Amino acid sequence: MRPLAMGVLLLLAGCAAGPNFHSPAAPDTARYTPGPQPGSTVSTEVAGGAAQQFIADADIPAEWWQVYQCKPLDELIRRALQNSPTVAAAEATLRSASESYRGQRGALLLPTVDGTASATREKTSAAAFGLPNFPPSIDNAFTTSAQVTYKLDLVGGSRRQIEGLRAQADYQRWELEAARLTLTGNLVATAINIASLKAQIAAVQDIVASEREQLAVTEHQFKVGTATHADVLAQQAQLDQTEATLPVLEKQLAQAGHLLAVLAGETPDHVELPDLELDALNLPTELPLSVPARLVRQRPDVQAAEAQLHQATAQVGVATANLFPQLSLTGSIGSDASVSQDLLKAGSGVWSAGASLTQPIFHGGALRSQRRSAIDDMDGAAARYQETVLQALQQVADTLRALEADARDLSAQTAAEQSARDSLAIARRQYAAGVNSHTAVLIAERQYQQARQSRVQAQAARYADTATLFQALGGGWWNRT
Fold first, then answer.
1. Measured between alpha carbons, how far is residue 353 from residues 148, 328, 329, 350, 430 in Å?
2. Strand pairing partners for 385?
3. Domains in the chain, CATH or no CATH each
4. DSSP secondary structure string, 132-198?
């Protein structure tokens, strides 16, 4: 019977309760969009209007924002990564999870050893022993000992618990990567928005200057009798309406600057807007496009969801191990003496050894309910992982279509701006020659103002959606030194 019992113990010691975790299979698809994926975008003869090619499975640089070749933007992001409280908090949480893993790994898999030393002085009455006439005795006792406790991991519950802690540390690592990626993406988007607002404000200011000149012409024509007072009032109203759009844009610019300061880890009163112009940005003409099977290994949010699934799977093992016997070994060695000098003498040594086996018998169904609950948590984590993967695929698909549409939109807006500019120039010449009404000039001015702002917004959208693609593909963290 003894060899059989030892064999059973060795067999139990070599396995771990609960299911073994395996990374979920990659999505069974080779593309992101229905039908053929876009291979390139159209081009436009304007800054930021070059055609962009999608290069299948091309690698992504760790500092992906450098594709814009903008030094102020690069300096801003480097400073923000150092000062961001969001990144600092994620780093601290990762360190805490890593320390918990290291500490619990040693506590659960290795024996615990504690040393104690005690000294007591005790007075004993002789009357307690039926000798009332004898004086009481006073005794000293000195003890030193070392206690060893070791919980045998027979069915792998401790190993599963450590596995769960390691998965929790992995989750925090991916949360840190996600925080960095989100921060850099928001910084690029905000900087591009600031550049767009600056360009829109400049466009409105140019139009205001032009309308002021037109108002002066109309006032002169009114004085010489070739224009009516109604024409002057209409031109003045047009100028006032155009100037009224400036406070709105200036408010948006100020708020974007405040956001940029906070993202960079500064207070809003320390706004340092980057010297960034839309026309100075480089639009990358070659964009990476990872296959879906590779995307799930690149995205920090997908990896974080997988770590949570790993942790939930390990908890099933912990709950399963709680149903089995728990074996603990204890031992101590030390010495006892009545005087401290005798603690190291022969004959003062004492020791003890023991073992305890605990088998759960009746817990009111709690242990099995805990195991079923752990299984349900694992199923929920698996569903959340699948949802995260689907959302990642959707984000890439949305961005591909957005880039394709952005290029066409910029082309159309550029043509519309040119047509509106030409139409306004003709309307002004005809009005100056007295062959056109002032109303036609006002309509042409409004059309040109709207067309110019729309072109600026379309241009900014291409830069912003290009950044979104790099962010959707994972941001290149794996190439960071």
1. 9, 11, 8, 11, 110
2. none
3. 14-112+155-324+365-479 (1.20.1600.10)
4. TTSPPEEEEEEEEEEEEEEEE-SSSHHHHHHHHHHHHHHHHHHHHHHHHHHHHHHHHHHHHHHHHHH
The DSSP bridge partners found for residue 357 are: 327
Cα distance between the two ends of the chain: 58
Measure Cα distances from 144 to 216, 324, 341, 357 in Å. Answer: 104, 36, 12, 28
Yes or no: say if 280 and 70 are a contact pair by the CB < 8 Å rule: yes
Separation of alpha carbons 357 and 427, rounded Å: 98
The DSSP-derived string for 351-416 is: EEEEEEEE----STTHHHHHHHHHHHHHHHHHHHHHHHHHHHHHHHHHHHHHHHHHHHHHHHHHHH
Render each residue's pLDDT in the chain as its tens digit; 481 residues: 444 444 444 444 456 788 999 999 999 888 898 888 888 888 877 766 788 999 998 999 999 999 999 898 999 999 999 999 999 999 999 999 999 999 999 888 889 999 998 888 887 776 666 667 777 777 788 788 899 999 898 899 999 999 999 999 999 999 999 999 999 999 999 999 999 999 999 989 988 988 898 888 889 888 988 888 998 999 899 899 999 999 999 999 999 999 999 998 889 887 676 778 888 889 999 999 999 999 999 999 999 999 999 999 999 999 999 999 999 999 888 888 777 777 777 777 788 899 998 899 999 999 999 999 999 999 999 999 999 999 999 999 999 999 999 999 999 999 999 999 999 999 988 888 878 877 788 888 889 988 999 999 999 999 999 999 999 999 999 998 7
The residues pairing with 116 across neighbouring beta strands, listed in sequence order, are 145
d(CA 69, CA 274) in angstroms, rounded, equals: 14
The dihedral sign for the CA sequence 117, 123, 126, 128: negative
Parallel, antiparallel, or unpaired: how do β-strands 53-56 and 326-337 relate?
A: unpaired
239 touches 208 (CB < 8 A): yes
**CB count in 10 Å sphere of residue 361:** 5
CA–CA dist 313, 310 (Å, integer): 5
Q: Are strands 112-124 and 286-289 parallel, antiparallel or unpaired?
A: unpaired
Q: How large is the angle between the packed helices 438-472 and 157-224, nearest 10 degrees?
A: 170
User: CA dihedral in degrees (118, 122, 128, 129; nearest 10)?
Assistant: 80
Number of H helices, E strands in the chain: 9, 6
Please identify which residue in the block is written with the tokens 């930021």: 48
- In SS3 terms, 204-236 reads as HHHHHHHHHHHHHHHHHHHHHCCCCHHHHHHHH
